[in-house]
Structures are given as C-alpha cells and as structure tokens.
Design brief:
about 220 residues; alpha+beta; Rossmann fold; 2 domains; two-stranded antiparallel ribbon; globular
Length: about 220
C-alpha cells in the first residue's frame, strides 16, 4: 500500500495513546431526566480529542455508526491546532492560525485528523461504519489517511452529496454544487457487502436524493 507522508506525522501517529483519560462529569441541570446516566444518550461539551478519549472506557467497540464533519480547511476558517503534542518545535508550528496563505495547512490538517480518526476506529463495532463529509479541499488527503488507518479493504464508497440545486453565477471557474461523504467500515472479517433495503430501481427516487414537503426521506443501509 502506498504510504502517506506529511510534515509532523512522526509526532502525531501515536499521539492518541498519549492523550490522558478524562472523567465524563454529568451536568444535572442540563439533563432531560432526573436520573443522569452516562450509558444513555450524551452530548459531550469540551475538546473533541479529549472527549473521544473519555468515551473509550465505556464505548470502545460498541458504536455502530459514526458521522463526522471535520473542518474543510478552505483557508477561511482560521482554525488552530491546539493538541498538546510532545515537541516544543511542533507546538510552535502547529499553534499558528491556519489560513489560505499557510503553505503547510494540509499537513496541519492531517496532524489534527490522525489521532481523532484512530480513536474513532477504536470506538466502532466490528460491523460499524464511519461517515465523513468533506469538500474538494481535503478529499484526496482524507481518503489517503482513512485508507492508512482503516485499511484499503475497508473503504466502502465515496458518495457525492449535491448541496446546491442552482449554480453560483459569481463562481470564478466552475460552480461547485457538491461535497463528498466518505464511508468506511471497521473491519471486513466476514466479507460483508453494503446494501440498502430498497431495490436498485427505486434507489434514485428515495432517500437523500428526494425532498418531500421540505423533509428528507430516509433509507436503511445495513450489512448483510
């Protein structure tokens, strides 16, 4: 398999192992019930890497489906990588605001994604799946890092999500009307295939392609 190389990789490829575990502390006045239960539905407020690590003791290997919407890294978000990487030189480089003029913004993005994706994989069940939305700024890098972490055999598909119906008349070149949804599974131990519960003939008239009175129709997708 081809190897993905980027600046900072050697410092972050095992960073998820160094992140300390933090206790999840329920906030009773924000709960919908009087009996707060960490085994129930949760909204975790905090740094996402620390939150993911905090979920591992209870949910490792138990999550069937994960959806993530990472930064698209367009150069307009002005985000900062704030993980405590064990290297002063790396911290100085990573700690600067990422903008369009940053020639290493793709490297920083991969440094940010790597430890999070590794923990997400640990959370999935053997038949679980990860869905990630992204646009053309990082689609190629996302596919490569996912294949490296999950394995090429566990790549399921890269779906095109039409996000706009009308073209942009002010576009400089081509009018971008779609993003991507990358789908990977945790393992392929049984040689499972991804299928939907609707027939192929009806697929294009149902689900995410159809708007009914302003609401999306859903289709069940499962491993059989």
């Amino acid at each position: 398999m081809a190897e993905l190389r980027f600046k900072g990789k050697t410092f972050v490829q095992n960073h998820h192992l160094m992140v300390p575990y933090h206790e999840l502390i329920p906030v009773k006045n924000k709960s919908l019930t009087d009996k707060v239960n960490l085994q129930d539905n949760l909204i975790v407020h905090g740094d996402n890497l620390k939150a993911l690590k905090a979920l591992l003791p209870m949910y490792a290997g138990k999550v069937k489906c994960i959806y993530i919407d990472p930064p698209y890294n367009t150069g307009n978000e002005n985000w900062v990588y704030n993980d405590n990487v064990n290297s002063p030189m790396m911290q100085d480089w990573l700690g600067k605001v990422v903008d369009r003029e940053d020639l290493t913004r793709h490297d920083k993005w991969l440094c940010m994604m790597t430890p999070r994706l590794k923990i997400l994989r640990e959370l999935l069940t053997d038949d679980g799946a990860l869905f990630a939305t992204i646009d053309n700024n990082e689609i190629q890098h996302l596919l490569m890092i996912l294949n490296e972490i999950f394995g090429e055999d566990n790549f399921v598909d890269c779906l095109v999500w039409q996000k706009k119906v009308s073209p942009s008349n002010d576009a400089k070149w081509f009018s971008s009307d779609h993003d991507y949804i990358v789908v990977l599974r945790r393992t392929n131990n049984r040689g499972d295939r991804w299928t939907s519960t609707v027939s192929k003939a009806n697929f294009h008239t149902m689900g995410i392609r159809t708007m009914t009175h302003g609401a999306m129709e859903l289709i069940d997708i499962y491993l059989q």
